[in-house]
């Protein structure tokens, strides 16, 4: 699938000064950090939360899995709102809902309200990541887009790791509710920064809708926006679904753990950049982490160092995958990225729900060995995607060549 940076795409990248682009990149990365931080921050406080809300740790863990499922389905709600009201309004609206739900969770008096507000917050998280990623794809030129996406996904990779650490410190010295007040502060800061610094960036190539056009005020027109087929049809494209599955398998490990060629730019080239981390750094560090805990060697230092390198491996691999999904189909960019998160967080939810019973059954070592094998399976998917010659051109905008 060819991509050489079409003239339309280039027009979107040259209107902003470089410093403004990196400010927008920071805001997007901050909101991604906030969204992923909220998905894991309570893990260290699960016993305290279950005691305070008169429930069990198992129930809390199940709600965590449902929050990840809600994150996966976020775009099915917010993408239509994005198309109806425009990306900037939808983006800021999602941040506001996340802020309000974080306040609701912090003051929740019982398990029912705690679960409801967490699920509602989860329904905003993935859209924030999708919108941020599509904005970055719109404002950065292809030659620097990979670097920008690498910086951006630092938030999505570090958030799940930072969350339990911060949550553990907070619950040691204070109430678990303070964790959610921290999330309120993070979302509030992100909302202020977004309102002040992120402009309304056109994205005609994203989804085929021109947000500047007046939407016909008919019920049928609004309902059409909520048709999810434009997202799910991306699952029929072999290369895209293989990349989706690889992202999902990597997320299972993540949540379980807690450029040019002849003038033609190929989105597939992005995938090659992560092969060394996927087949080298990631499996070695996962195995050292797991078996170090299983066999009790290396003390505390080994799992800490290994977990750090797991993060490096995930970030190095996901950077190319994220950039690929942003470039492979410019005219359906938002739908492709949304589909990725549906698969990614569905598998992450399965990992969250299954990892503790699996560890109880076979131990830490074999549990993460299974996850490592799944990661390598994802690597084989990437080899399939990158292992073919230049494909034929298509007329649907899935390839652009100037």
UniProtKB/TrEMBL annotation:
Intracellular or extracellular location(s): Membrane
Residues in Major facilitator superfamily (MFS) profile domain copies: 24-402
GO molecular function, one term: transmembrane transporter activity
Keywords per UniProt: Membrane, Transmembrane, Transmembrane helix
Gene Ontology CC: plasma membrane
Topological type in the membrane: Multi-pass membrane protein
Top-level taxon of the source organism: Eukaryota
InterPro entries cross-referenced by the UniProt entry: MFS (IPR011701), MFS_dom (IPR020846), MFS_trans_sf (IPR036259)
Chain segments annotated as transmembrane: 22-45, 57-79, 91-108, 120-140, 152-173, 179-198, 235-255, 275-293, 300-324, 366-392
Name of protein: Major facilitator superfamily domain, general substrate transporter
């Amino acid at each position: 699938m060819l991509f050489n940076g079409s003239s339309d795409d280039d027009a979107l990248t040259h209107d902003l000064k470089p410093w403004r682009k990196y400010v927008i990149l920071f805001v997007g990365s901050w909101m991604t950090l906030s969204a992923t931080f909220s998905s894991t921050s309570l893990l260290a406080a699960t016993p305290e939360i279950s005691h305070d809300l008169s429930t069990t740790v198992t129930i809390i863990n199940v709600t965590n899995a449902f929050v990840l499922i809600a994150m996966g389905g976020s775009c099915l709600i917010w993408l239509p709102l994005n198309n109806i009201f425009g990306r900037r309004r939808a983006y800021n609206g999602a941040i506001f809902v996340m802020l309000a739900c974080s306040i609701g969770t912090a003051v929740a008096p019982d398990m029912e309200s705690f679960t409801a507000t967490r699920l509602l917050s989860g329904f905003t998280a993935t859209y924030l990541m999708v919108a941020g990623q599509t904005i970055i794809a719109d404002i950065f030129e292809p030659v620097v887009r990979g670097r920008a996406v690498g910086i951006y996904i630092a938030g999505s990779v570090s958030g799940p790791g930072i969350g339990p650490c911060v949550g553990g410190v907070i619950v040691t010295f204070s109430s678990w509710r303070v964790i959610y007040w921290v999330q309120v502060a993070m979302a509030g800061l992100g909302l202020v920064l977004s309102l002040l610094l992120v402009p309304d960036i056109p994205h005609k190539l994203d989804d085929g809708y021109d947000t500047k056009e007046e939407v016909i005020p008919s019920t049928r027109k609004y309902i059409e926006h909520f048709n999810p087929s434009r997202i799910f049809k991306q699952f029929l494209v072999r290369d895209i679904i293989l990349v989706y599955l690889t992202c999902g398998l990597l997320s299972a490990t993540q949540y379980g753990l807690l450029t040019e060629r002849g003038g033609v730019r190929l989105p597939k080239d992005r995938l090659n950049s992560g092969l060394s981390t996927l087949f080298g750094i990631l499996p070695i560090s996962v195995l050292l982490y797991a078996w170090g805990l299983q066999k009790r060697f290396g003390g505390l230092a080994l799992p800490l160092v290994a977990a750090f390198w797991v993060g490096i491996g995930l970030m190095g691999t996901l950077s190319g995958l994220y950039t690929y999904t942003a470039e492979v189909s410019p005219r359906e960019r938002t739908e492709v990225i949304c589909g990725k998160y549906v698969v990614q967080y569905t598998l992450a939810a399965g990992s969250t729900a299954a990892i503790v019973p699996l560890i109880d059954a076979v131990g830490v070592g074999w549990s993460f060995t299974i996850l490592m094998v799944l990661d390598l399976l994802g690597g084989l998917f990437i080899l399939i995607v990158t292992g073919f010659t230049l494909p034929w051109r298509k007329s649907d905008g899935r390839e652009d060549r100037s």
